[in-house]
Amino acid sequence: MSKLVLTLCAAALSVACAPAPTPEPPAETEPVPSESQDEAGVRRIPIETPKGTFEVWTRRVGDNPRIKVLLLHGGPGASHEYLRTFDDHFPREEIEYYYYDQLGSFHSDQPDDPDLWVVERFVDEVEQVRQALGLDASNFYLWGQSWGGILAIEYALAHQENLKALVISNMMASIPAYNEYADNVLKASMDPEVLAELEALEAAEDYDNPRYMELLMEHHYVDHVLRRPADQWPDYVNAAFEHINPDVYVLMQGPSELGAGGRLASWDRTADLGRITVPTLVIGATHDTMDPAHMEWMAGAVAHGRYLLCPDGSHMAHIDDEEVYFEGLIRFIRDVDDGSF
User: Fold this and answer.
1) Is 14 in the active site?
2) Which listed residue, of 75, 131, 234, 293, carries a Cα 20 to 30 Å from 8's Cα?
3) What is the pLDDT of residues 20-58, one digit of tens each?
4) 146 catalytic, yes or no?
């Protein structure tokens, strides 16, 4: 589950420095790409739902008739913005890829209807996006990270005839198993006094208390979400979390940042992974919020799987173990493309 998505900016601010009320381009060598509606490759796709028609935002980068990668961001309710590192790797490999903000996320429509925030409707949305973009089994690689990994698994179980390959990044196949890992490993590694204070705040449902965020950032997030000091987190990561939609996130993930609840609390596809027959890469990281051993098991549970471990990475291994992550991801894509997988 993508951690910190509700309060990351507030937490970072308590130990770092506040961003301007209106986001400014970060002071980096390469600026965060513009997300204007007029940008090349941007397309808004109408999505039919039981509650009406809404639009989602996509942006195509590159042109490759054989390799087209659709990126499913985490959350739920986050945005594509924290995936910017793909721009440093896929273009030079001539891989075509699509940024995409799911319904309810920052660049897409954000209807105020809780009935829309269910897994099955998100799966149908991805299928409508696929059809609109013209992706098919000859070229369609589906990549999902965190919540996006849940969505990718669900899509594969429903529509794998449309896939060429699947990538499940930093996501376990079971929320109950994740909660068990959080209880027995992540919490157990915390300072007992810190954990006691956090659990007291959660018991009081005092999630908005600045102390809750401060403790999580200092004792958890910089170790397991993005392994950098908070004041060194990239602006594009902070922007993605600033733009989170809490109405989607809390309903599906729950308010706690020490486990998952909400509508996803009982989600478990461990018994169904064997039904996934397309080439599948599962990516885990040694310091992830997710259990790397479970993710390695997943690669063996699908019919044709490979496991990539990022030894220095966390939940955002595509940033904090970037070279290992993209070398392994690109090798998988090339192996599928040339038939050697």
Assistant:
1) no
2) 293
3) 333 343 333 333 343 444 578 999 999 999 999 999 999
4) yes
